[in-house]
Recover the amino acids of this structure.
């Protein structure tokens, strides 16, 4: 027993020594990060700077203080603190920010990357190339384009129902809440992948600051040139001009389309729905249409895709033909006219009217993006490139030049599945017929 | 005291871990870099050629006396001079794989996970457990590999499926021939060196208890490793389609970072990192063990153990030599994965051929 202990002793000693030597290495002191010493940037805004540089606006989450009941309500209600720094890149702007922010600024929890309209029109690749390189950025944050300056926009993010700014962004952009009024795939990964492909139109969320809401001067009058008789359609609005009053002075609605790295235009809520429908990304969303029985009134369909949208692309020599086959279905959830759409004849009329609407709106959107803007937001290029056998052949084809010549056709089918909890319209007793 | 013995499961697990760990390193990107949209085809061609390495090793081992390892068998067939030359080239391969993987994985940790930690500390933190495990011998290595291979494979499946559910470009693999048909076929043949690690079976196979299980262990390893090597490159191509896929520094780490399933399941890369760390340490241990075993068998030393710590120190200093991350990546891509098949396929085949000739001449005489 004793001899065995003596032979094992050097081995035990060696193991103990190795463990002891390993302990200081495994503490990880170099990269120690205490959350209470960190400032978490939730949103970053970019605007053009005065000297061929940029203005970076950082929204830093205000930590919730435990047992801070005695503090002023103003400080307690703030969910973010915002500052803007002039710099040639994000890292140098953060470094400059550290001169007055005591905590270590980190981008690891960034939720939103807000591009100001001016920088978006000028070109954003120099900024994005830093984002893809940074180890702190995750490719899962949302990219959004704001009307006006990103700085003004971020300064006016004042959520009223949420104290957690990160959760506020998640909820505002949750597809279950907004449906297809915002582009579904609007995270940075989608954006940069589309931007790096030739001829593809990258898309971001459209957002805007409302100075009238902020000053309490918002009014609900109709827009210019709109008919007084016809009910306006909610989806025909963009962020920045939603007819409303209220408190939160920012809003998200529609999408911003980029050609290469420059903003080329915006799509309103309904155009964004059509865009999502054609890209097979449509999520269940309420959709307003003109009532075929009374053009002055709207009816609302709770719309979803019946089948996956199919895009067939044919290439004959240099000519590209694209055919979209769409099948949608929905429940009639709001109708104000007295027409009973549960009756077969009326239902058919409604279905045909909606099909016609969806088809004409689809063609308008395709005309706008493909012919007018010459961008392919629908990943047509993906199918065209599969008709080539090598990358060289595909690159020599120069897809970008062919986008404007694409010939497209849309087939839309719509089926009315349900009609809410009532069969037939609600009628005043005097109107009721036998 | 007899030599340590292992079973079929331990042997296959060792081979799988030694082969597939490269998918956590820049391997998927280098495939896309070479083949464009056809990066996966290069891996497929390499998979079709990988049995050649095993057939070569099996041929060498069966041509020599019973119980011989690849090293002793090579020396027996080729003689002390040529045998030692060939064995030294095997040593170089194992040794290079070990220090390059150590440096590449450390670079990945320093770049993305622990940016302020000095690389020397990361190297040490990886090398100490590596040396300890390698010193414990093939039996311990085999047992640890068998215990961990399940969790490694499960984590890979979760990672690949999770990533594809988050983002997948449906036509990412087209144009089908990527950078060109002849280029893809040529590179597929050259990149058969992706399976150079199979040479480790030259040490593992003679230690398998049941002689009948030897081929079974290797084929299990080949099939499982091939499936994961191929599926990881395909998934990477779907998640980071060409040309984006040519620019990602740490491919699978980035793939794990984009996984999102609702508001609650995201930022999951930390879980995968622990498993990758485990996998890398095991790979390094197998590499270090094979390097030590090669040298000790070449020098006819009674034990491999005594060489583990001197070789570890050498590996540590060699891993520090590359001035930057790209030099290490290029060493792997331009040397090991370009000329590796000369060592892993041609040399065993040549030895087998010579062994066959010598047997034939011996019988005739």
């Amino acid at each position: 027993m004793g001899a065995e202990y003596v032979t094992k002793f050097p081995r035990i000693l060696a193991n103990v020594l190795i463990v002891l030597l390993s302990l200081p290495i495994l503490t990880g002191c170099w990269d120690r990060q205490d959350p209470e010493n960190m400032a978490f940037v939730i949103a970053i805004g970019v605007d053009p700077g005065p000297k061929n540089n940029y203005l970076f606006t950082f929204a830093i989450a205000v930590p919730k203080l435990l047992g801070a009941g005695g503090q002023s309500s103003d400080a307690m209600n703030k969910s973010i603190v915002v500052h803007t720094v002039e710099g040639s890149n994000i890292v140098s702007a953060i470094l400059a920010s550290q001169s007055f922010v005591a905590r270590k600024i980190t981008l690891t929890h960034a939720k939103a990357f807000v591009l100001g309209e001016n920088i978006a029109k000028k070109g954003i690749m120099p900024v994005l190339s830093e984002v893809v390189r940074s180890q702190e950025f995750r490719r899962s944050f949302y990219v959004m384009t704001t009307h006006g300056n990103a700085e003004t926009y971020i300064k006016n993010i004042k959520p009223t129902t949420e104290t957690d700014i990160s959760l506020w962004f998640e909820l505002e952009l949750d597809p279950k809440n907004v449906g297809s009024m915002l582009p579904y795939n609007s995270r940075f990964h989608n954006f940069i992948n589309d931007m790096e492909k030739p001829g593809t139109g990258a898309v971001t969320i459209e957002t805007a600051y409302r100075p009238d809401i902020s000053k309490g001067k918002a009014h609900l009058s109709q827009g210019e040139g709109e008919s007084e008789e016809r009910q306006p359609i909610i989806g025909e609005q963009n962020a920045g001009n939603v007819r409303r009053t209220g408190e939160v002075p920012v809003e998200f609605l529609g999408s911003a389309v980029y050609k290469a790295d420059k903003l080329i235009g915006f799509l309103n809520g309904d155009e964004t729905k059509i865009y999502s429908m054609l890209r097979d990304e449509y999520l269940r969303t309420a959709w307003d249409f003109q009532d075929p029985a009374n053009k002055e009134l709207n009816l609302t369909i709770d719309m979803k895709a019946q089948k996956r949208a199919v895009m067939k692309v044919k290439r004959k020599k240099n000519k590209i033909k694209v055919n979209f086959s769409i099948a949608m279905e929905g429940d009639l959830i709001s109708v104000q006219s007295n027409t009973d759409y549960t009756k077969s004849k009326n239902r058919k009329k409604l279905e045909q009217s909606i099909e016609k609407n969806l088809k004409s709106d689809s063609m308008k959107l395709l005309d706008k993006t493909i012919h007018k803007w010459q961008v392919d937001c629908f990943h047509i290029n993906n199918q065209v490139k599969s008709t080539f056998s090598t990358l060289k052949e595909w690159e020599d084809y120069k897809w970008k030049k062919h986008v404007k010549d694409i010939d497209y056709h849309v087939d839309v089918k719509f089926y009315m599945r349900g009609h809410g909890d009532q069969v037939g319209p609600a009628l005043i007793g005097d109107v009721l017929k036998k | 005291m007899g030599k340590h013995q292992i079973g079929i499961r331990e042997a296959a697990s060792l081979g799988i871990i030694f082969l597939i760990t490269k998918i956590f390193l820049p391997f998927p990107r280098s495939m896309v870099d070479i083949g464009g949209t056809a990066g996966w085809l290069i891996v497929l061609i390499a998979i079709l050629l990988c049995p050649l390495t095993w057939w070569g090793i099996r041929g060498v081992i069966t041509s020599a006396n019973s119980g011989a390892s690849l090293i002793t068998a090579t020396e027996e067939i080729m003689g002390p001079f040529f045998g030692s030359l060939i064995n030294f080239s095997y040593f170089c391969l194992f040794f290079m794989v070990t220090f390059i993987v150590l440096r590449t994985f450390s670079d990945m940790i320093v770049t993305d996970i622990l940016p302020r930690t000095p690389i020397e500390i990361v190297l040490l933190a990886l090398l100490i457990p590596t040396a300890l495990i390698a010193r414990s011998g093939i039996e311990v290595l085999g047992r640890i590999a068998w215990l961990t291979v399940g969790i490694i494979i499960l984590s890979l499946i979760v990672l690949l499926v999770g990533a594809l559910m988050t983002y997948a470009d449906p036509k990412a693999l087209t144009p089908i021939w990527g950078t060109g048909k002849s280029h893809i076929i040529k590179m597929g043949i050259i990149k058969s060196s992706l399976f150079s690690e199979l040479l480790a079976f030259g040490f593992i196979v003679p230690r398998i208890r049941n002689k009948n299980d030897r081929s079974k262990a290797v084929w299990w390893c080949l099939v499982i490793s091939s499936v994961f090597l191929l599926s990881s490159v395909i998934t990477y191509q779907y998640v980071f389609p060409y040309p984006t896929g040519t620019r990602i520094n740490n491919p699978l780490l980035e793939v794990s970072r984009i996984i999102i399933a609702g508001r609650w399941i995201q930022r999951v890369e930390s879980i995968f990192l622990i498993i990758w760390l485990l996998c890398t340490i095991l790979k390094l241990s197998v590499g270090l063990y094979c390097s030590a075993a090669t040298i000790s068998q070449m020098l006819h030393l009674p034990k491999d153990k005594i060489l583990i710590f001197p070789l570890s120190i050498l590996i540590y200093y060699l891993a520090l030599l590359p001035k930057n991350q790209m030099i290490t990546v290029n060493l792997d891509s331009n040397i090991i994965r370009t000329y590796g098949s000369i060592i892993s396929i041609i040399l065993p085949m040549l030895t087998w051929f010579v062994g066959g000739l010598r047997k034939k001449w011996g019988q005739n005489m």
